Amino acid sequence: MSSAIPLHSLVDVIIYDLLYPFCFDVTTIYVCFVLLFGIKFLSGVIKLSIEPLLLSFPESFETSRLHIRAPLAGDGQMVHLALTESIEDLRPWMPWAQTLPTEEKSEVNVRQARLKFLERSDLRLHLFDKHSRQLIGCSGLHQIDWDARKFEIGYWVRPSFRGQGYITEAVAGITSFAIRELQANRLVIRCDSRNTASSRVAERSGFILEGILRQDTRSIDGTLRDTMVYAKVRGIDF
Questions:
Q1: Are 217 and 227 in contact (CB under 8 A)?
Q2: What is the CA radius of gyration of the chain?
Q3: Fewest beta carbons less than 10 Å away: which of 48, 57, 107, 184?
């Protein structure tokens, strides 16, 4: 469902109720033509601000090997198992992965993520292997700016599913979902410049390196790190 509010009714009011009656000679016809053309052009460009809570879009979709869906109550046990396997690999890059949460805290986190998904403030997505039905990792659309239709893609995968192209496949699917269902104008992937696995995913997924933010933020070990910023932009990259 398109979440942009159409301007057709507003355009029609302006054209037929306000401008048309004045188009009675060559000069005014020309002026009216220019105004009408401008209004029609803007009606196709301007997207009025909307209330994110009113947006309706699918909570799940699939790629060739993955079932991707929003978090649901009860996912905590699966997330906890995946984190138990992955925590050592995530710790250098993810501030939230410094300690392994309990299964109960994982369930609380899942339910909080569910609420944020319904609020449209953050769209976390769980990645499931279709064949084994295992939760293989997490991704999602974060740092959302609904007015600009800008989203940041994050991701992690458990070690037993690494090196098989699952995250690249997930990013491709999420990118298509964001463009098709959310009318995304800009999609971003940010990563530590030392996280070569993450940057390779961005590059394989066709994201363009826009720049490197030098000494952008502090790493987990307290040292300053550089952040690589990759993006895809409507009208240029898709």
A1: yes
A2: 23
A3: 48
